[in-house]
Amino acid sequence: MLEIFERRNLLLTEHNPGAQLDYVVTLQSELAGCETVFPARMTLRYVPDRLILKPDCLAAYFAEIARIPFDNFETAAVLLMEDFNNEIIPRWINLRLDKQKADNASVQHHEAALEDRQPKWHNPRLLDRLERY
Fold first, then answer.
1. Which is nearest to 61 in space by CA: 36, 93, 92, 29?
2. Torsion angles phi and psi, residue 94, rounded to 5
3. pLDDT tens-digit series, residues 40-56
4. pLDDT computed for residue 133 by the predictor
5. What is the tens place of the pLDDT at every residue in 84-105?
6. Dihedral (C-alpha) 123, 15, 59, 66: value to the nearest 10 degrees?
7. Please, which contacts does 24-27 make with residues 24 or more away whose CB atoms are closer than 8 Å?
8. What is the pLDDT of residues 53-66, one digit of tens each?
């Protein structure tokens, strides 16, 4: 298992070609790995600031995520959110992790949704147009 900085270095970025604009990037991936957490679908939505994520880097990053023995589903969601937030430093970010199988007979659906934004960024008209989960 890689150290945190080595894992985050797998997330490659490039210059935002439209840094003067507010727009939403959406990436969706199927994750595998730790049996208590995965399989799960991750949906990442963000409004870029100076950087955008290079989607081609995600295969290597998710391969490393699959090696982590998470204690629970929420721990995985928080780690993913912190990694993406730290590397792309977006104006706004939303991460949804949706478990693809039932935890047990009592819990048929398990989902975590996390959100963060830069302190002075606010564009309700853009966010109001987004499809709700």
1. 29
2. -140, 130
3. 999 999 999 999 999 99
4. 64
5. 999 999 999 999 999 977 777 7
6. -60
7. 24/126, 24/130, 25/52, 25/53, 27/53, 27/55, 27/58
8. 999 999 999 999 99
Give 44: exposed, middle or buried? Use CB within 10 Å, 0-12, 13-18, 19+. Answer: buried
pLDDT of residue 28: 96
Asked if 97 contacts 75 with a C-beta cutoff of 8 angstroms, the reply is: no
Q: Buried (b) or exposed (e) across 90-103, using 16+ Cβ within 10 A? A: bbbbbbbbbbeeee
DSSP 130: S
Q: Which residues pair with 51 in a beta bridge?
A: 15
Question: For the chain, what percent of residues have pLDDT higher than 90?
Answer: 79
Q: Dihedral, CA atoms, 33, 109, 132, 89, nearest 10 degrees?
A: -30
Report the distance separating Cα 129 and Cα 126, nearest Å.
6
